Amino acid sequence: MINLGKLKEIKEQRFTFSWHSEIPVKSIEFKGDNGDILPDGWADSLPYLEKVRLSSFKTIDKFAFYGCTNLSKINMPDSIENIGNNAFRYTSLKDFIAPKNLKEIDTEAFDGCTKLKKIVLNDKLEKIGVSAFYNTAIESLDIPASVKEIGSIAFASCQNLKTVILNSDFNKELNDKERYVSIFSGSNIENLILNDGVTEVNEILLQGNKSLKHIRFSRNLKKINKYAFEQCPLMVIDLPESLEYIGVGAFKSTNLLKLDVPKNVKTIGDEAFVKISYSAPISFPEYDTPKEITILNPDCELGKTIVPKGSTIYGYDNSTAQAYVEENKDMGYKFVSLDPPTVTTTTTATTSTTSKTTTTTAQATTIVTNVIAPYNECVLIAVRNAVDAVTNAADLLKSDIAYADQQTADDAGIVSFSYIPDT
After folding, report:
1. Which of 292, 335, 359, 373 has the most CB atoms within 10 Å of its CB?
2. Residues 202, 230: Cα–Cα separation, whole Å
3. pLDDT in tens, 142-164
């Protein structure tokens, strides 16, 4: 181990250890006041370095430990405010606990740290740079509300990343071009949790993520921007009542079976929920979903081809939903009114009584129960034609679906569905 005591100044030059040193350096420890900045390239590519303990620096400059392929542990004081670009790229760090005063993690700071499984970010962090954690082994990610800017592909190609928690909006101050970046491309996120500080889902946030199963939406969410969840295999979503805007292609090419659009949604963009593009020269509408959509705002502005051909659109009489069906007859949409049925009243003229006669029809509720592994998801698809009840999911989605839902089994593995069959 080399112990670097109280240095009055660290020169702006690379450290002079040689690849051919007869005494390989495995550990470096700083003590005392060594200034504010650990300089550019200070110890890059030391092949034997395993551990570092830093003193009260404020900045770890660019390439400081770049290529130290055996560096697995570093002790950072809380005085650190900035980690420069490529500072720990291609090291063997296994975890990163951010110093409590850290404000910025620059471009590619931890890029290629393929053994980095755990990161804990601090609540004063403001910026995460481009490719900052690209191709790492992190398994979960909780981005603090203090973070206002995240660069392109900051967490891309993180194959083990399963759960992401967002606590606030970010990149709102950037221009449209800078905002339109893919942060998580190539990662395998299964669960997205948008806590209540989130009011907007950024463009292409999880576009192309092939593993996404669940989204917990913020109760204060206002906007889901264009292509946010395009090509994600979602089957069920529960949009919040606060939602006002759904952008172009926001849920395009997902596996949604049906959905309810809350009453506060004012705009649904073009192809928001279709699986395929109807502007393409060849399309296969029989594979398209969802088959049913309920639009609760009678004045909602609807874009082009928001749902597939032949879909059933539920809405109110004289609503934009009803007008949409009538204006797009070539799409084969079916409109079903949400208005209560008219009750026929018969009045008998007598001197003392008025009687009302109302005809009602009772419908039986069907309950389907199954036992699977506890807390696992189960999907039920009921078809109108018995011959369509095949085992192939793709063929089921082509059939005439009467009911579809997804539920989570309880701790005993019991999962139940209830619905009223077609009459």
Report:
1. 292
2. 12
3. 999 999 999 999 999 999 999 99
